[in-house]
Amino acid sequence: MDNGTPSADSTRRTRAGGTVAPPLKANRTRDMLNPGDQLPTAQPVVVKLAINPNTVLNAYRDLEREGLVRARPGQGTFIDG
Fold first, then answer.
1. Cα separations in angstroms, 68 against 5, 12, 26, 43
2. The predicted structure's pLDDT at residue 19
3. Domain ranges for the chain
4. Block means of pLDDT (10 residues each) for the chain, length 81 residues?
């Protein structure tokens, strides 16, 4: 039943994903990341930020849904133009 309150799971994902997505968005806005630039794989991000790999993967999926990046199977995730 939806009472208008975010579920604990969605709140956790948003909070954790907020560690990854905002810096990528800010860098894109400041032209530090250009269309076609490849994002790092999840592992270096996990190590640098000390977060769960699923957090990175969920953040990358969220960025893809927003049209900011494009995942290319077998190649990586790239800034979308």
1. 28, 22, 11, 20
2. 61
3. 9-79
4. 45 51 61 87 92 92 92 94 80
| pTM, 2 dp | 0.65
The residues, ordered by sequence, that sit 6+ positions from 76 with a Cβ below 8 Å of its Cβ are 38, 39, 41
Rg (CA), the chain: 14
| CA–CA distance, 44 with 77 (Å, rounded to integer) | 14
Provide CATH code, domain 9-79.
1.10.10.10
Write a three-state SS string for the chain.
Answer: CCCCCCCHHHHHHHHHHCCCHHHHHHHHHCCCCCCCCECCCHHHHHHHHCCCHHHHHHHHHHHHHCCCEEEECCCEEEECC
